[in-house]
Batch of 2 targets.
Target 1
Amino acid sequence: MVDESDIILDRRGMAGFVTLNRPEALNAVNRSMVRELRDALERWRDDDAVSRVVVTAAGGKAFSAGGDLRAIFEASLAGRQQASLDFWREEYALNAVIRHYPKPYVALIDGIVMGGGVGVSVHGSHRVAGDRFDFAMPEVGIGFFPDVGATWFLPRLPGALGTYCGLTAERIRAEDAVGAGVATHRVRSARFADLLEGLCGTVPVDALIAAFAEPAAAGPVMAMRDTIDRHFAAHTVEDIVAGLESDRAAPAQAMAGAMRGKAPRSLKIALAQVRRGRSWSFDDCMRAEFRIVSRVVRGEDFYEGVRAVIIDKDNAPHWRPDQLSQVTQDEVERHFAPLERELILP
């Protein structure tokens, strides 16, 4: 029989085993998956027979391509923005549970990992990149912002890589995953089945994964570190764009091109997140993200971005405003202002 649950939870030896099981939706994370995973993590945390948690995904193409944006879009069109905010409350609380989990939490990532999929993997103790590992935070391209804890983890990537990822939405693939700090280990996909079997046993997680791991390598993104660090350390988005555009080298021109067409307001919010998140605690970062999403969900850019990229797929969003110069610092600050009902974390 085929299990048609969106998430499959079971015990395999010493492991609490999680399979994201929506391959037809690229394993996009929905509210029931968030609730079931959190319940399982809380149950396994106090179970002495479970020594580690292992998270994998069905389908072979995607670990998880994000949250269920189509469902959020449709709910909001029907006037149910509060339902969307309730989803984010639960999702961000799950991110915090994973971040603070007391047992090894191993995400085996062999495919696309974006948005909500990053949230259920990057905060764990072990992130294993397979051959098809394909990471991105593409939110600024849909009028949103890097969330699910990006305010915490992007500033902690080496150099200015976090700013680069947040503002360009460019991808990091397997050869760069460990060097960029997104993954902790690189394991060949052909060895995943044996690694999974080993993770269900009693060998300590660190020793087991180390035995399977490949030496860290440097791919195309790491080869551009000097360019990335030089330009993305600039103080404002305008300065970053100007620096890239004035640099005649092909990598800089490609980065400038990647930023063109992104939502101006989202770009400025994302830069503020990365700058501020460097000195904030994880929980402070999550509370800030809930403040931001509570404003974004009431605006226009997010729905226009989802329409253009996911619903109509014309890839021609009309941002309001459509120029960086039209987004004031006061407008950015408004997104970080305290809420009447703040996010409460476990």
Note: The beta strands are 7-12, 15-20, 52-57, 62-64, 105-109, 112-114, 126-129, 134-136, 172-173, 185-186.
Target 2
Amino acid sequence: MAIPYWTIEKAPGAFVTNIQTVTFRSGRRVLSDLYSSGQATVSGRRPDLLPTLAIGDTLIMRLYNPNTSPATIFKRDMRVSDLQITYGTVAAMDTYTLTLEDAFAIAGRSRVTRTWASGTSTKTAFENVCTDIGVVYNTVVATTPKTMSATTVTDENALAVLQKIVNTEQGLLYAYADGLEYYTRQWQSNTDFYAFGDAGGANTTYQQVQFLSMADNYATYVLVTIDGGTPTVSGTGIYSYNIDTYALNASEALSVAQYVKGALADTTSVPNTLSVLLNTESSSRTFGAMGQNTGVTLTLRSQTYTANVIGFTVSSTPEQTRVTFQLAGTEQYAYLVLDDTVYGTLDYNRLGF
């Protein structure tokens, strides 16, 4: 089998060459994680052959797998955040380490000052922040966006503000080199499912599966605070989780608290990571799963689990390329889709949120 490989291009014909290793990370590790910058680290030889690079330059990363059709299985734009060069006694011994990041890093370094009237939608607030910090945006509306209380932010960290907006909505955020995408709640239900398993056949054969420790993604007591207001609580017990929102009122804050508790109080045993070796992969299934909150079915020892991809890491060396998916069980998505075999499970939702 041929070995998958990366190309990294600054402009047509201007490539990062002599690549030795690539690690690309995107998304979250568990549902309770805050949003943070995706990052790629590229190491190689002969930095003198690199194209001219500056902080903020956009590079196009493409991953090819000669074993599949089409061979281009992944493409993502990233921005240069650092370049480290280590010199040896001769040029052939010189090495470089290139660090890349996405637009979450722009938000994390930016400040925002803005006032929103009561009833402003989370969609509008998200778009306002993106405009203020100079990043392009896209919004996908699956359900009518939630509305916010009267809110003023003054010189606040833009990523923290975006986190509160998405907490209010219980939607999703994704980042690219210079842009952000915002999905309203329940968009997760509109996913395709990609099959992985331990028996081959119609499934892509995984290399390793790990199940989640409840301590990492479990809460029975959720405390939701409206920005500058009084906390609202759902549940009891010592396993607690706190989130800040711009919820419209106490009733809406309670809805958020109940929704989150419904997800984090789930005790169903679910896989957290799924690892696939691309060297032996002849299907494009793994590429398909490397999208926005895609669904996977996992067959393990004759039992089938359903989960959603909330993040992934691609690790490449000259010998192999491995994709490790971070998963959340579909039971942890606290809403109901009637007559759906996956999302139609009762007792995991609060209708009307």
Note: The longest strand covers residues 72-86.
